[in-house]
Write a structure and sequence with these properties.
Helix content is 49%, strand content 20%. It is of the alpha+beta class. The strands form 4 sheets. A 6-stranded antiparallel β-sheet has the order 7-6-11-10-9-8. It has a 5-stranded antiparallel β-sheet with strand order 2-1-5-4-3. The protein has a 5-stranded mixed β-sheet with strand order 13-15-16-18-17. A hairpin with a 4-residue loop joins β1 and β2. The radius of gyration is 61 Å and the shape is elongated. The model has no long low-confidence stretch (mean pLDDT 81).
């Protein structure tokens, strides 16, 4: 057979097996629920029987009842017996309590004051009376009351005479409606029913009113001895047979269970009936659960079976396709290995070429960094060259003063004026210290920066840059407002490179202030959250319209003598390398420009 035919056969087998498995599981679930309800109800019936069974025996011990049986013609004694049994009926919750003599004639009853009183009625035909007389022990019977037409359980016990004979029987009737009302359908089964059958197969208790006093065992052969007993037990009842069909025992359930089909209200309903004998009596409890849930169980199992089948088929198709693909891949692998071998040589050659290009690029980048460092150093030296005139001026004045103090000291020494000589020498020492400090600042500024960024107090490069700027001639007459913070301003940077940037900005500010009335440079440091911002502002003419153009290399608005236009470009590169930022713009509060250095904060103590 082809694979398609095998697939159809397996599909049908899977569907049939799933359907049967669903039926087996559904019937087992119904039987389990029925057995649970049967056990619960049988325990209920047993409890009720044990509750009422000893009561007639206790009532038979009462001397007033025995006295009434011995002297039934005494009306006062009988009246007291009637009242006593009425109290007994109230106490035990019985519907009726009555006293019969040895012939079955009722001489006293709890309902003596009602029209349907049992007094004067003879019940020698009732089995409970005959059993109590014959055995001399407790008797139990159930039937439909011939007088009250109410179903009930009859508990009887004989009353013995002192001589040993039986004087009569005391009986108590308990209605069974309470037993019927205590039947509860399982929450998950809306089509569950209950029926209690006597030994002849007639229903005595039922969850459906129309099922009462029906023959559940009718075989269609006409009247029999069982029907005669039923007519005596259930007088004035039709005792019609049920429209019921017994369909046998489904697979997977116990012999106590069977399928039945009942015609009710013009429609056939199918139930799983589980039969359970009840204690004490010849009753059989049948719990019937509708088989509709079996159908849904079969549907669920069918769906699961089909899902499993489809999963298996898809897995088989997947494996089949996988094996086919693996074979193709194996064939292509051989071809690919050949191509790989051919291209490997090309890739190795390209790789060697790429490695050479990478080495060349790394060398070019190293050269570029060296050139940038040399360019920064050249810009530094260019600034020093521009400030050389100012340095010459700053150095010549102290030298002239030192020379004058030295000549005067010789004359005062000849005169013996040692005090004046000491004063002159002290001035010479002070002037030499100033010259040394000025020379040190220029040496530090001219030195190359070699070290990684570290924690720097931003106030220090500003102080050093101001000392260098003060040495220039162009700085005379320019006011500097340095709002120096009282506490350290620790930032992430490099002292020498930040100082170079500050010198460049201050030098540009001095050049911009040439020819300005009341020139002023303002320096302050502001806290901007995670960063520090150092602002350098002047009150000069300001920047061109496009402020970003000033950071381009060789762009300048000054003369060739004042610079080549590399200072701001180098300064921005320095700030970018330190992880900071340098921006420039025109002031909003008046004429002039402002440059802002932004550096990240660092936590440290001064």
């Amino acid at each position: 057979m082809t694979a398609r035919v095998w697939g159809v056969v397996l599909f049908l087998v899977t569907a049939l097996f799933s359907w049967q498995l669903g039926a087996w599981s559904g019937y087992r679930l119904l039987e389990r629920e029925s057995l649970k309800e049967s056990f619960r109800y049988s325990q209920l019936v047993d409890r009720e029987l044990k509750r009422y069974r000893p009561i007639p025996e206790l009532m038979a011990e009462h001397p007033l009842l025995r006295a009434a049986l011995e002297e039934p013609a005494d009306p006062e004694l009988v009246l007291r017996a009637n009242n006593q049994m009425k109290r007994m009926a109230t106490i035990i919750g019985s519907s009726d309590v009555y006293l019969m003599d040895h012939r079955g004639l009722t001489i006293a009853a709890s309902n003596h004051d009602r029209q349907d009183s049992f007094i004067g009625r003879n019940f020698d035909f009732r089995p409970y009376f005959n059993d109590a007389i014959r055995t001399g022990a407790a008797a139990l019977y159930f039937a439909l009351g011939s007088t009250s037409d109410v179903r009930g359980l009859y508990f009887a016990f004989p009353i013995q005479a002192d001589t040993g004979g039986v004087l009569g029987v005391v009986a108590a009737k308990v209605q069974v409606t309470e037993l019927e009302s205590q039947w509860q359908r399982p929450a998950s089964f809306t089509d569950a029913e209950m029926v209690v059958l006597d030994g002849d197969g007639f229903s005595f208790l039922a969850s459906r009113r129309q099922w009462l006093y029906r023959d559940f065992m009718a075989d269609g052969e006409g009247p029999s001895e069982s029907i005669s007993r039923a007519r005596l037990r259930y007088p004035r009842r039709a005792l019609t047979p049920m429209d019921i069909e017994y369909l046998g025992r489904p697979l997977g359930v116990s012999p106590r269970s069977r399928l039945v089909r009942i015609r009710d209200e013009g429609a056939w309903r199918e139930y799983l009936s589980v039969q359970t004998p009840l204690p004490e009596l010849d009753w059989d409890l049948e719990v019937m659960l509708g088989t509709r849930q079996v159908f849904w169980s079969q549907v669920r199992f069918l769906v699961m079976g089909l899902v499993v089948f489809l999963g298996a088929m898809l897995t088989w198709l997947y494996l089949k396709e996988r094996y086919r693909r693996e074979a193709e891949l194996a064939q292509r692998g051989v071809q690919l290995e050949q191509r790989v071998a051919e291209r490997t040589a090309d890739l190795e050659a390209s790789n060697r070429k790429l490695i050479n290009e990478v080495h060349q690029r790394e060398e070019a980048q190293n050269e570029l960094r060296e050139i940038q460092q040399e360019l920064i150093q050249a810009a530094k030296l260019a600034v020093l060259g521009q400030m050389s005139a100012g340095l010459n001026h700053e150095m010549s004045q102290p030298l002239t003063a030192i020379q004058s103090y030295a000549r005067n000291s010789q004359r005062f020494l000849e005169r013996g004026d040692n005090a004046t000589v000491d004063a002159n020498l002290a001035e010479i020492v002070t002037l030499c210290g100033k010259m040394a400090e000025l020379t040190r600042q220029f040496k530090v500024f001219a030195r190359k920066s070699e070290g990684r960024p570290a924690s720097v107090d931003l106030r220090q490069p500003v102080d050093a840059a101001l000392k260098i700027i003060h040495a220039q001639d162009s700085g005379e007459g320019v006011g500097v407002d340095w709002q120096r913070p009282a506490h350290p301003v620790m930032c992430h940077g490099d002292l020498i490179r930040i100082e170079q940037v500050m010198v460049n900005l201050l030098t540009n500010a001095l050049h911009a202030l040439e020819g300005t009335e009341q020139p002023m440079i303002q320096i302050d440091i502001q806290d901007n959250g995670g960063t520090w911002q150092c602002r350098v502002r002047d009150n000069g003419p300001g920047l061109p319209g496009n402020s970003e153009q000033i950071f381009e290399p060789f762009f300048t608005t000054k003369s060739m003598k004042q610079g080549l236009g590399l200072g701001l470009s180098i300064s921005r590169q320095i700030m970018d390398a330190l992880g900071g930022r340098l921006t420039g713009q025109n002031r909003e509060d008046g004429p002039g420009a402002e440059f802002i250095l932004t550096l990240h904060k660092r936590e440290a103590a001064e």
